[in-house]
Design goal:
Elements lengths: L28 E4 L20 H17 L8 E7 L2 E10 L3 H9 L7 E2 L4 E2 H7 L5 E14 L2 H4 L8 H7 L6 E13 L8 H29 L4
């Protein structure tokens, strides 16, 4: 019988070096989650980015066409876990072959059926951000999405784009935009659960669940890249 940790409990219990690219930060998408002692009534407002539907459709087509010739590969996430006075800090970085707008939509849009729990009518990432976590005294974190200008070296020559607009101009609208996602998760089990061997189990299942979520995001992006666009 599995232990429901909130963040990990909603994912099926049958759980399942990024490519070298030129990247510069421009507009970023950030979201913050809250701990049990800090409900979503006090949560920081989520930063918004401009969502250009036509540009997103163009990017989808660019990714689809490129996938036929040179399939994109997202490496497993880089994970670092540290502990200080019983508080775990899990830092995870990974790439996704999709624009920041698209990844943000996967994280937050209920219509992203692959990441929506229809039985309990809630979104996976929404649960991560807003609900209490069983056995956890502290459970909070944030995620950030940054653009990766993956074709800049090939299409922009000597120009190093510093924004989406610069990249679009120097690549003549033919440059794909991928995403770098950074997740920082802090968690601390309640007393008794913070002692071995239970603490080892909780640490392990939290890490495994997060890696599963990352793989789900990357796999979903692959499906989108392979899908026919209208």
């Amino acid at each position: 019988m599995g232990v429901n940790l909130g963040f990990g409990g909603w994912i099926s219990q049958n759980t399942q070096q990024p490519p070298k690219v030129d990247s510069k930060r421009s507009e970023n998408v950030e979201s913050k989650s809250v701990s049990e002692g800090n409900t979503n009534n006090n949560a920081p407002a989520e930063k918004k980015v401009y969502y250009d539907v036509n540009e997103q459709m163009k990017q989808d087509q660019l990714w689809h066409d490129a996938e036929k010739k040179h399939p994109w590969y997202d490496s497993p996430p880089k994970v670092k876990v540290t502990t200080k006075k019983g508080l775990y800090h899990m830092n995870i970085e990974f790439t996704v072959g999709m624009t920041p707008d698209g990844v943000h939509d996967i994280f937050t849009n209920p219509s992203s059926s692959g990441f929506f729990d229809h039985d309990k009518w809630r979104h996976f990432m929404g649960k991560y951000k807003k609900e209490k976590m069983m056995f956890m005294k502290v459970f909070e974190g944030s995620w950030k999405i940054e653009p990766l200008y993956v074709d800049s070296e090939r299409l922009c020559k000597q120009t190093v784009p510093k924004s989406r607009e610069e990249y679009k101009k120097c690549s003549r609208g033919q440059g794909k935009v991928a995403s770098k996602v950074t997740m920082n998760q802090y968690f601390q089990p309640y007393p008794l659960f913070n002692l071995p061997p239970l603490s080892w189990y909780i640490r392990g299942i939290t890490l495994k669940t997060t890696k599963t979520l990352v793989k789900m995001v990357q796999n979903f992006a692959t499906v989108i890249r392979m899908a026919e666009t209208s």
